[in-house]
Amino acid sequence: MIDNRLLKIASNTKFYGLKNNYTYKTNLKNSTCGDKISIEITLKKNTIQELRYETESCIFCQASASILANIAKNTNFSELKTNLRKYLNLSKKAPKKFNNLTYLLKEKYMSRKDCILLPFKAFYKAIK
Predict the structure, then answer these.
(1) Positive or negative: CA dihedral 44, 50, 54, 55
(2) Which of 13, 40, 78, 102 is most buried by its number of CB atoms within 10 A?
(3) Residue-wise pLDDT tens digits, 53-99
(4) Among the residues of the chain, which ranges form H helices?
(5) How far, in Å, CA of 107 to CA of 14, rounded?
């Protein structure tokens, strides 16, 4: 069952909508369920100025994209791309700004892990 916290996270659309002004861009589709995401990453002096996204997806993917965009804003690009996998695997204690992601990756929603991880897979695809 979807709870209020998940709805609140997914309804944060501050970074929703592409601007066609980016350093990196990609599109990705989840072959399991059909979720789609497009992301644009804008860098300035190795700092992520903004990560914008658009999705045709379930609420889990929407929430995850919103979390990623919030985490990425004004973050050192090299540091984020190096440490993000550790945080996603929960093998390293995540900083406070990752609390919502930690919440999504709890056992309660693990059946939707592919949906939750799609924005992060798109991030890595974009920067390769």
Answers:
(1) positive
(2) 40
(3) 999 999 999 999 999 999 999 999 988 887 777 676 655 566 677 77
(4) 4-10, 59-72, 77-88, 99-104, 113-127
(5) 27
